[in-house]
């Protein structure tokens, strides 16, 4: 009957253990008397706190405090560094990568565009119209009565240099690509629903509600255009 | 010893400042060290090690 003997042994064990505890607690303290006295009567023999004086530090309390604070501070510094690195790595991970940034800008050599010609470049998946306007076309764009337009915008607000008109080639109606040098106003004409844009890309006739959009662009050099 | 205690650990704000400054310095040192180890393990395999074999001039990156 192996299980029964196991049970009896398990039952017997605590009593042995208790006895052992009692023998330990009744041994006298090694060095000096404990200052602890039990508030309960009859327990003075069973609860004696051992003497810990041999574990007392011999160094001054200040140096112990210094070491403790140093350890706490070092731990805090490492934790703070780790937290900062974690947050930083997440933020870096979320920002645009180098290949995306490389596609975000398009450079155009303006010497290749003669006066009075359109060029369409692809920028971020959309066509961008660049027109080298003649003096007559600039004159024409400036002579329009702005207040009579559907989306009133002066030509000077739409261009950085009057001879270069740069705009997003997406019709503001439903997103078709308008055809250049067409339409009743000498500018762009959207074949989908018949919107007419003038030589400044402003909506003049048809269903489109807004002028053609102007992307962010700049001229870093005299004959160079950077879109984006 | 006591001077160090008085300078850094006596006030909470000085200790906090010391901890953040220490974190900053530790981060820089740790990053540098880890990059050095990485470069040492991967030496001869990275673009900056073999660039001189392929790049003919400074212009074409």
Provide a count of the helices of chain B: 3
Parts with pLDDT < 50 across at least 5 consecutive residues of chain A: 10-23
What's the story with the biggest beta sheet of chain B? none
Shape label of chain A: rod-shaped
Please report the distance between the alpha carbons of the first and last residues of chain B. Answer: 54 Å
What ranges of chain B have pLDDT less than 50 throughout 5 or more consecutive residues? none
How many strand segments of chain B?
Answer: 0
Radius of gyration of chain B: 21 Å
Assign the CATH class of the largest domain in chain A.
Mainly Beta
Protein name (chain B): Complex III subunit 9
Family (chain B): Belongs to the UQCR10/QCR9 family.
Organism (chain B): Apiosordaria backusii
Keywords (chain B): Electron transport, Membrane, Mitochondrion, Mitochondrion inner membrane, Respiratory chain, Transmembrane, Transmembrane helix, Transport
Word description of this protein:
The complex is a heterodimer of chains A (228) and B (61). The longest helix of chain A is centred in the middle third of the chain and has 34 residues, at 61-94. Chain A has helices at 2-26, 61-94, 98-104, 135-142, 155-158, and strands at 106-109, 118-123, 126-132, 164-168, 179-180, 186-190, 195-198, 203-205, 217-221, 224-227. In chain A, a hairpin with a 5-residue loop joins β5 (179-180) and β6. In chain A, the strands form three sheets. Chain A has a four-stranded antiparallel β-sheet, with no helix packed on it. Chain A has a three-stranded antiparallel β-sheet with strand order 1-10-9, with no helix packed on it. Chain A is rod-shaped, with a radius of gyration of 44 Å. Chain A is an alpha+beta fold and 228 residues long. Chain B has 61 residues and is mainly alpha-helical. Chain B has a domain at 23-54. Chain B has helices spanning 2-9, 12-41, 47-54. The model of chain B has no long low-confidence stretch (mean pLDDT 86). The chains are: A alpha+beta (228), B mainly alpha (61). The A-B interface holds A 62-63, 65-66, 69-70, 73-74, 76-78, 80-81, 84-85 and B 1-2, 4-5, 8-9, 15, 18-20, 22-24, 26-27, 30.
